[in-house]
Design brief:
Layout (H helix, E strand, L loop, with lengths): L2 H20 L1 E6 L7 H12 L5 E6 L4 H10 L4 E5 H9 L13 E17 L14 E3 L6 H12 L8 E3 L3 H9 L5 E6 L4 H8 L4 E3 L4 H10 L4 E5 L10 E13 L4 H11 L2 H10 L8 H4 L9 H9 L5
Parallel strand pairs: 1-2, 1-3, 5-6, 5-7
Antiparallel strand pairs: 3-10, 4-7, 4-8, 4-10, 9-10
């Protein structure tokens, strides 16, 4: 290779290295592929990716707890988390009692309500949480927010984990087991409609959702203000009646170590007109991902990049 050609080739390599350096990879931890985090995370990643600048990708994970830990360790730049889990991680309370606080955890946005689903077969005779005693109940995998909430719900209704036959599996596996009769009920916390439950309801297996109402639900809300009263409308799932339950907020969190400019660009892109249209068209929960909802129910500090955007938009002072 002559000197001139070598110089051109070297310049090209250096230019490519510079471009690669300028391009930021932004990995977003979501949840299981049959839940709500995964498809919504994919839509957000598409909406905020900017050619040559930011490449955002949604990655399947075990859910809230796993995502918060991944953000803390730097193996993900951001992740979906239930509002309760994010607050516990930052304050070292709840599921993080006795563990080091995730002091660098920062908020990008509150996204949408996540309903607590308690799914049973039609005609099972399970009408309240108390009826789960002696039954085979799936509580989701370790690392999921669902497992934590399921334990809280059981306790509020006076049901110990030793009173049930627990199974720690994802909702799509739980759906299969409910279908074949090897499971009586399963919990799932996520935006309705959740893929695994919609699939189950459409498969011809008659299902019902057990309400979470009355004194135990009120007491749970009083102790844990991040729980909200929630309604899953009739026919959200095929032939399933309306049910009143509880919900937590789904939130997008990141680390204080991520540059402010990156988070600013991502937040701005997520609430652009184009992204908003795509989110609303892409999933039933997309219509909740609005600027106004972004700043509701926030229990940890905003990332400076997100804060800059919300201040410019007049949403926070």
């Amino acid at each position: 290779m002559n000197i001139k050609k070598w110089a051109v080739a070297a310049t090209a390599v250096l230019a490519f290295a510079g471009a690669a350096h300028a391009q930021q990879f932004f990995r977003i931890g979501t949840g299981g592929t049959a839940g709500t985090y995964y498809p919504v995370g994919g839509m957000i990643a598409n909406a905020v990716s900017q050619p040559g600048k930011i490449v955002a990708t949604a990655q399947a994970s075990n859910g809230s707890l796993a995502n918060v830990n991944a953000v803390a360790s730097g193996s993900m730049e951001a992740g979906f988390s239930q509002s309760d889990v994010a607050t516990w991680a930052y304050t070292g309370t709840g599921a993080f009692e006795g563990k080091p606080k995730v002091a660098d955890l920062r908020m990008i946005a509150n996204l949408y309500p996540e309903s607590i689903h308690l799914v049973v077969k039609k005609g099972s005779g399970i009408k309240t949480v108390a009826d789960l005693k002696g039954k085979r109940v799936a509580l989701d995998e370790p690392g999921s927010g669902t497992l934590i909430n399921a334990r809280m719900v059981l306790a509020a209704w006076g049901v110990k984990e030793s009173d049930i036959k627990p199974d720690y599996i994802k909702p799509n596996q739980a759906g299969d087991k409910l279908k074949d009769g090897s499971l009586d009920a399963f919990f799932f916390v996520g935006g309705a409609p959740a893929g695994a439950i919609a699939e189950l309801a459409s498969s011809g297996v008659g299902i019902e959702l057990v309400p979470l109402t009355g004194a135990p639900a009120d007491a749970l809300r009083k102790q844990n203000p991040y729980f909200a009263v929630d309604t899953i409308a009739a026919n959200t799932y095929k032939d399933v009646a309306q049910v009143q339950t509880l919900a937590v907020g789904a939130q997008l969190v990141t680390s204080a170590k991520i540059p402010a400019e990156t988070v600013y660009e991502i937040t701005k892109a997520m609430y652009s007109e184009q992204a908003q249209k795509a989110l609303q068209a892409g999933h039933a929960k997309g219509k909740f991902i609005t600027r106004e909802n972004a700043v509701q129910g926030v229990g940890i500090p905003f990332h400076p990049g997100a804060e800059k955007f919300y201040k410019e938009a007049g949403l926070i002072k």
